[in-house]
Amino acid sequence: MDEFKVLIVEDDPMVAEINKNFTEAVEGFSVAAVAKNGNEALNLLSKRSFDLVVLDNYLPEKSGIEVLAEIRRQERPIDVIMITAADDSVTITAALRYGVVAYIAKPFKFERYRAVLDAYRNFRQKSQKRKTLEQQDIDELFTLNQNVGTEAIPKNFNVQTLSTILNYMAAQTTYQSAEEIAAGVGISRVTARRYLEYLVEKGQVQRVMEYLSVGRPVHRFKFVENR
């Protein structure tokens, strides 16, 4: 079958580009459009055909949940995956009630997103070929809605800060020092280094040592894409 046409709804241009790259790195998916707010997303949905919406919740004008509710009110035959920093039970419960096929809390690893898209693609392909599905086929889709929360992080860490650092680093093509990352994200060098050490331990960031001709060697960090 043809590739699944995806609409990404994300107001942060850098995050939108990361989500686009992640989506198109998975076989069978093509990003057809990107919307930066809820109204733009609904306007695109009224004019063009999409198979899947990758939806953030924190959006200008309309929240992701409001966009999702409108999609369901209009009974549009389209699937939705939410990728958002919203990890409160009210938002998650609302998203599940409106029938998202998966809810991914930021920050997340590429391998987590890829597993969701792979399972979604496989289910859609089977459902198009068969009139009836076996329980195992059904379970493959519904188990995507398990583990809707975010991974446990240290108590003195902030989910949004961690997500911002990961998103910034995922957009970089070269190794960055803690000072460069701190400046790019807008946090202190000490804070950046603390989060970077944690991400190195988790295997999401690689650390190398750069030896300079003058002065102490410098640690540099790079996002690890698990593909």
Quick structural gist:
The chain has 227 residues and is of the alpha/beta class.
CATH architecture of the largest domain: 3-Layer(aba) Sandwich
Q: Give the averaged pLDDT, no decimals.
A: 84
Total helical segments: 9
Strand composition percent: 15-25%
Radius of gyration: 19 Å
Strand order of the largest sheet: 2-1-3-4-5
* Head-to-tail CA distance between termini: 23 Å
Helix content: 40-55%
CATH class assignment of the largest domain: Alpha Beta
Q: Output the structural class.
A: alpha/beta
Order of helices and strands: EHEHEHEHEHHHEHHEE
Shape: elongated
- What is the CATH superfamily classification of the largest domain? Response regulator
Keywords:
18% strand, Arc Repressor Mutant, subunit A, alpha/beta, 3-stranded antiparallel sheet, Rossmann fold, 227 residues, 5-stranded parallel sheet
Can you offer a commentary on this structure?
By secondary structure, the protein is of the alpha/beta class. The protein folds into two domains: about 140 residues, Rossmann fold; about 60 residues, Winged helix-like DNA-binding domain superfamily/Winged helix DNA-binding domain (Arc Repressor Mutant, subunit A, Orthogonal Bundle). About 45% of the residues lie in helices and about 20% in strands. It has a five-stranded parallel β-sheet, sandwiched between helices. Helix 5 packs antiparallel against helix 6 and helix 8 packs across helix 9. The radius of gyration is 19 Å and the shape is elongated. About 5% of the residues have low confidence.
